[in-house]
Amino acid sequence: MPLFIFLPSCKKVQENVEQPFGWTPRDIFHLPDHLSSYEWKRLRKYAAYVRILYHSSPPALKPRDLTAESWTSMRILFGDRPILPNLRVLQWGAEWPDTELPGITHFLSPTVDLLLLSCCTHPHQRFLEYGPRWQALLPGTIKTICERAISLSQLMTCMGQLNACELVTTLSLYHPPTFRGFTLYGQYETPPLSLPSFVDLAGFVGLEKLTISVPVDCSSGTSLPPALDLPNLKHLRFPIHRESCPAYNVIASTRLQSLHIDHMEYSSVTYLRHVCSAWARSFPNLEVLSLWLTPTESQYGVPTRSLLAAITPLLDLHHMRTFTLHTVSTPLTIEDADLTAIAEAWPSLKELYISGMFTPNYCAGSTAGLPGLLSLATNCPSLTMLGVNSIVHRPEDVSLLPASPVNHPLKELRVIRGIAPNVYRLVRDSLFPHINLQLHGSDGEGGSYYA
Known about the structure:
By secondary structure, the chain is α/β, with parallel strands linked by helices. Helix content is 27%, strand content 24%. The chain has 13 helices and 23 strands. The strands form six sheets. The protein has a 13-stranded parallel sheet with strand order 3-4-5-6-7-9-12-14-15-17-19-20-21, covered by helices on one side. Helix 10 packs parallel to helix 12. The longest helix is centred in the first third of the chain and has 25 residues.
């Protein structure tokens, strides 16, 4: 930490420091527990200018700069006062539970607005040694954060191998009134949240942004409430959504504007329609939905059901502005009727992106063409981006196009499979005169334009 190491009293000492390849001697800095009045005045002066602080750990990322005794010296020098009184952003990576974890206390200024806390726990064999100590200290540390960082609005945490249950419960009880955003990251080895801890999320009544990547244990005998109401929630993200855990489906907020699910297991049209019904009830004012479907192994194959059969409940969400769906080879077809239903239900749509993986089976089920594009051009006057897997050209559909070109403002058209030059010109001249595509490659039939 440059603020300390430039003090004359802060001396270099040689100490064995843990590196990715083992312990090795290294020169690091030692802060004494007494400073001259000149150094003390200088330290306090420049500390007041600091707004952002990054404390990096574990040693695999950056070997520690200060001795363990230096943390004790800080406690003696500053007592209960924050070292950086005007700090706004604090990113704290802690590996050692008895020194670096409580060391965060010295930097919890009342002005801290954003805190990123990374619990850099050890590999499995060493976690068995340090894990219990981590679990014992973490709830108290979270309580201290809430008590000292009284302006905290966002907390982002990475749990490593730690159980997040007590963190969530403690935070739900003691978070400051300014608290608006919570992100809970985990790794593949992070234990799941218990249902009671998940239900404790209801304590975040002022929460506006929530991201959870830790799985929820739905196998216990505890029953889910019909709805877990977060009245002020506006943005919700689940990096993983498993059918085996229905907990995420009970979150509700009439103010929710955006929902992002990065990985959602798809097992059947019936299940997806059930989930869409839950979202339509729980988020009546939803404006942005981004969904990445991944089929279970048994669901790979030739598309057999239309997209509309699964997402019809969402068409009641008339405030929708952005709809993104990655189907990743799920057995769903994209038809003109699907695009027509979407266009008529969502007149305020600005961005529509529906695509699947580049596989023969999926593309064989994509039959949307000029009728679907015409519906979008007619009913969605604010549409500026459109992405589809392919555009099927049927000669009989040309007669459906208007005699006078539609001056639609669409600027970006993405067609994953490419679009033949004659079809591109037809779409541009009749429907979307402002689109701009680039010639990317050849399809063996005179070339294809790719968005």
